[in-house]
Each structure stands twice: as structure tokens, then as C-alpha cells.
Amino acid sequence: MKLYYFPGACPLVTHIVLEWIGQPYEAERLTREQTKEPAYLKLNPSGAVPTLVDGDFVLTQSAAILDYLAELHPEAQLMGDTPKARAETRRWLSFCNSDIHRTFGLVFGAPYFSGGDDAIAKVLAAKAGEKLKSMFAIANDRLKGRDWLTGQRSVADAYLFVMLMWADAKQIALPGLEDLRRFQQRLQADPGVLAALKAQSLI
Questions:
Q1: What average pLDDT does the structure give for the chain?
Q2: Do residues 49 and 72 both lie within one domain?
């Protein structure tokens, strides 16, 4: 099994989950230029990361990859044991992937979406930052009295952790979200998280 990634980008979520699963895997660091080369485009026509290759099976899109890994390794207990538990995990996975991650696209991509207009880019990034604060507040409320989003460790927790890393990197202040910060601090000491961060030269 092989994961293609950029350091600190969303494949870090998959990298953490692979560490939690504890089975052998490879991870190949790419440059943005390499993702546009014909060999890689055969794997991922979008020219993006992550891409997971498992034998002759090639899978793209973070949510699909995480779902696949959790289903492939039920012993890791990263999706839930019942239909309701799995639905709950997928709900929070979708929240991180489709809501928080998508909104970060306006933060990172403000120059592109503004057409190069600096004033518009600043407005886009600021509005996206405000929206992100409200989304992280929802996650904070969910974590009150819980160590994990669903009550047990899941793929959604790895995703939320990486989104918090992005918030810190972009200096998006999240005052008063003590439960969220408690969650972050605990994961910062998690052996699987530390192994993935070290592998990507992030620590």
C-alpha cells in the first residue's frame, strides 16, 4: 500500500490513519510539479493529492480513502461497530472534509478566486476565516464531555486535528474553544500522529 502526499496537506490525515492501523505502507512525497506529470496523472487525473495505491486498486479523494482504510481494517475500530456509529463517523468526516476543508480553500486560494485582486482576496480570506471560527465552535461543542468526536477514536478525529493545524498555520484565532484545544493537545502527543508528522518532516 502506498500513499502519495504533500507535507502538511490533507494527505496527512490518511498518513495518521495508516499509523493508527499499524500495517506496513509506503509514503511518497511529491512536488506540485510532479503531480502534473503524465505518470502521476494516470493515477490521479486531477493532479492532486492524496492518492492511495493498494495493489492494482487506485483510490483518490480523502473521504473515500479514509472510509476504505477503516473498512479494510475493522480491527482498528476507526469507523464504528454499528450502522448508527458508522453513520455518525461519516457525518463528522463529512463535516471536516466538505465544510471545514472546503472553506479553507478560500483561505489558501484567495488570490486565485479573486482573480488576482488583492482587495478582494483579503475580503475572501477574512470571510472564510470567520466561517471557519463558527465551524470550529461546532466541533468544540461536540467535544464537550468527549475525548473523540463520536465517543471513540475515528478517521474524523485525524481530519479535525489536521484542520486545526491549518488554522494555526494561517493564524486563525480560536479563542475560548478549550475542549477543542484539549483535543488538539492530546493528539499532539499521540504516537501515531507523531510518527506521521515526523515522516513528513513536520517536526
A1: 97
A2: yes
